[in-house]
Design goal:
The protein is mainly beta. It has one domain: YVTN repeat-like/Quinoprotein amine dehydrogenase (Methylamine Dehydrogenase, Chain H), CATH 2.130.10. A four-stranded antiparallel beta sheet has the order 3-2-1-28, with no helix packed on it. A four-stranded antiparallel beta sheet has the order 4-5-6-7, with no helix packed on it. Strand 18 and strand 19 form a beta hairpin.
Length: about 325
C-alpha cells in the first residue's frame, strides 16, 4: 500500500507492515503504481513540483511536466498520475488544468495541447485550489485512445482519439453554485472513476451529490445528495461503490462528528452506513478524493487528521492501522 502524506510517502508491504518511509518532511501529493513502477509527485512549495520513479528499490528523479515555451503558465500541482494502458505510457493531470502524456515511462512529457486550447477553457474556474485542476484520468481498458478526465471546476471531458480532440460529458450533472446549475461547463466533479468490471459504468462524487453513468459518461443520473470526495468501486461489481460523506463548503468535516462509510450494492438505489470500528464522537476527519482505495476485499481510508483505517471485509468492520500520521493526501494499493 502507498500512503502519500504531508510529510512524505509511506510504503506498506502485503502484510500491512511499514516497509519504507520516503521523502520524509516533503509533501507527496500523489503516489501510484503504474506498470510495475511507483511514481511519486512531490509538492516542494517554493521549489516547485518534483516527480520521482521507483524501479526495484531505487528512486530516480524525473523531469516533471512543464508547459512549452509560448504558454504563460506554470505547473503548480501534480494532482493525478494514470496508466496509459500502453507500455511506457502515462498521463498526469495538473493545476492549472493541464494534461500531460509520456510514452517513455515518465522520462519526457508532452502537453495535451488540444485540451489546453479547448474553447470552453474560459469558463473553467478554481475549486478547492485557486485554479482549475485535473484530478481524475480514466483510460479505457478496451481502447487506450479513449480517455476521460475530471476537471474541477470544468466538468468531465472525453477523447476518443488519444487526446487529439475532446467532448464535454456533463449531461445530467448539477452544480447548485452556478447561475445555471445544469450548465455544461463549470461542473465540479470531486472524483470520477471507471468500473473495472464494466468499463461503461462510471461513478462520480461531486459538490452536490453522487452520480452514476451506465453509458460511458454520455449521461449521468443522480443517486444521492451526499457531499464528499473519496470514492471506490468494487473491482468485480459495477453496482457496488463506497463513499465517505462530509459536511460541505465551509466546515468540511465528518457529519455529526462521526466517521462513516456509505456503500451501495444496487447501483445507488439504496445505501448502507458502515461504522463499526470507526470513531463516532469528536471526529473531524475529512477524506480527500484520492484517499479511499480498494484491492480485492480490502478497503483503506486515509484522513486529513492522520488516521489510516483498514477493512478486510469490504467495509463491514474497520481497524486503525495508524494514528497521528501527517494529513493523508492519497492511498493506493500496489498490484504485486
Amino acid at each position: 500500500m502507498l500512503v502519500a502524506t504531508r510529510k512524505g510517502l509511506l510504503r506498506f508491504d502485503a502484510d500491512l507492515e511499514l516497509e519504507a518511509a520516503d521523502f520524509q518532511g516533503i509533501p507527496v501529493s500523489r503516489a501510484v503504481e503504474v506498470q510495475g513502477e511507483v511514481f511519486a509527485a512531490l509538492d516542494h512549495g517554493h521549489w516547485g513540483q518534483k516527480l520521482h520513479r521507483l524501479r526495484g528499490e531505487e528512486w530516480t528523479e524525473l523531469e516533471a511536466p512543464k508547459f512549452p515555451e509560448g504558454i504563460e503558465a506554470s505547473v503548480d500541482y501534480l494532482w493525478e498520475i494514470a496508466d496509459g494502458r500502453v507500455p511506457g505510457r502515462l498521463w498526469i493531470g495538473t493545476n492549472p488544468g493541464a494534461l500531460f502524456r509520456s510514452d517513455d515511462a515518465g522520462d519526457t512529457w508532452v502537453l495535451c495541447q488540444s485540451l489546453w486550447d479547448h474553447p470552453s477553457r474560459g469558463d473553467w474556474f478554481g475549486g478547492g485550489r485557486d485554479t482549475p485542476g485535473i484530478h481524475s484520468i480514466c483510460v479505457d481498458p478496451r481502447d487506450p485512445e479513449r480517455i476521460w478526465v475530471g476537471i474541477s471546476c470544468g466538468g468531465v471531458f472525453e477523447s476518443t482519439d488519444g487526446g487529439a480532440s475532446w467532448e464535454v460529458r456533463t449531461e445530467g450533472l448539477r452544480a447548485d453554485f452556478l447561475p445555471d446549475p445544469s450548465a455544461a461547463i463549470g461542473q465540479d466533479p470531486h472524483r470520477v472513476l471507471q468500473s473495472e468490471a464494466d468499463p461503461d459504468v462510471f461513478w462520480q462524487q461531486n459538490h452536490c451529490g453522487i452520480w452514476r453513468s451506465g453509458d460511458a459518461c454520455r449521461s449521468w443520473h443522480e443517486v444521492s445528495e451526499a457531499f464528499g470526495f473519496g470514492l471506490a468501486i468494487h473491482p468485480e461489481d459495477a453496482d457496488t461503490a463506497w463513499f465517505v460523506p462530509a459536511i460541505s463548503d465551509e466546515e468540511r468535516r465528518a457529519v455529526d462528528g462521526a466517521m462513516c462509510v456509505r456503500v451501495t450494492r444496487d447501483g445507488g438505489r439504496s445505501f448502507e452506513e458502515l461504522r463499526e470500528g470507526l470513531p463516532q464522537a469528536l471526529c473531524y476527519d475529512l477524506v480527500y478524493r484520492h484517499a479511499l482505495a480498494i484491492r480485492g476485499r480490502t478497503l483503506a481510508i486515509g484522513s486529513t487528521t492522520g488516521n489510516l483505517w483498514i477493512s478486510q471485509e469490504e467495509g463491514a468492520t474497520w481497524r486503525a492501522l495508524c494514528h497521528h500520521l501527517p494529513p493523508i493526501y492519497s492511498v493506493d494499493f500496489r498490484r504485486r
